[in-house]
# Entry
Amino acid sequence: MGLTLLFGIFFFGLLVGMPVAFALGLAAVGGFFYEGIPLFVAFQRVVAGVSSFSLLAIPFFIFAGELMLQGGIAARLVRLSSAAVGSLRGGLGVVSVLSSMLFGGISGSAVADTSALGAILIPVMKREGYDADYAVNVTVTSSIAGVVIPPSHNMILYAVAAGGLSVSKLFIGGIVPGVLMCLCLAVAAYVLALRRGYPAESFPGFRSLAWSFVAALPGLFTAVIIVGGVLSGILTVTESGAFGAIYALVVTVLVYRELTIENFRRAVVASVRTTSMVMILVACANAFAYLLALYHVPELLAHSVTYVSSNPYVILFMLNVILLLLGMVMDMAPLILICTPIFLPVVTGLGMDPTQFGVIMMMNLGLGLCTPPVGACLFVGCAVGEVRIEQALKSIWPFYLAIFVALMLVTYVPAFSMYLPSLLH
# Structure
């Protein structure tokens, strides 16, 4: 009865339009009342949710990404990608994928990737004769590289929700799967471009390619500072985020000289808004997770899936399908905080490393950002490309298939996500 009440209040809050964080908090309070647990315990769980030192890195990562979005780094990465692969048939689609891989590895945000690169590339592709639905679809689906390739603040949320996993292992574990996913998307973009007969750009020459690389190098070095500082052990995750934000400010103001006072204000406001949403969500989700553990939800789920099948491959496929479906109806951050304490004991019972499951979850829920009804990246991309969502969805399935292929490879071949982390020992 208590579990029914907990989820009943939560889903009722969602149905009436309540923000996810508040629906979680209200459901948790209802659960505490029902169980007769003093409310000061609920307050302790809320405070404990945001008292992790690792969470301090999130506002720094978000601020660094906003500075780069406003300061001209995205445009230089697009020019570099265009010089490198734009000469392929339908090369602008591959340019979009490569740009997303580079920018996502710096900003760590799929939505920022879609809005920044979409505003640059989608109008160019349409002007060069590419169909609007193709331009939107390749931009939207490639943007989720930002949640898999480090640095990703969503991986920090997963590390906290999983009980304090190594963020550095998660970061390095996402590199190969993120690149693999982008390669699959690039193949899909290239094949679809061939079928539709899209044009190729002329190769600008190695001199132009070299100059494009030099121009983009200061922006690319942001990822080196953030990720390299963590992996080398010189900096903690929080310290690397702070240094990354400082470096991004210096580059956009003193090197590129494109960060105006107004753009800086926008970056600050957007960072504060996003950070506030994330922290409130983490706090309320921690109280909600406390009740999930009290009601033995992980154990109930484990019994349920093993009742259907005892085959580990079938169970992993079922969990992937569940995560994909959940990602279609709820935002990524709350799902990480809700699903991690539920599903992690199940997969670890099958012998899967928590790092591998973290990467799988990022890819699954990242795909949810590209699917209706709550796909933020899909909405942003369609708005930028001036395309109706129904039109985009009719031709997006090859890109969905490419991501799904990469997801299955990462799920069933642990080496994709575990080989690089194993080198840390």
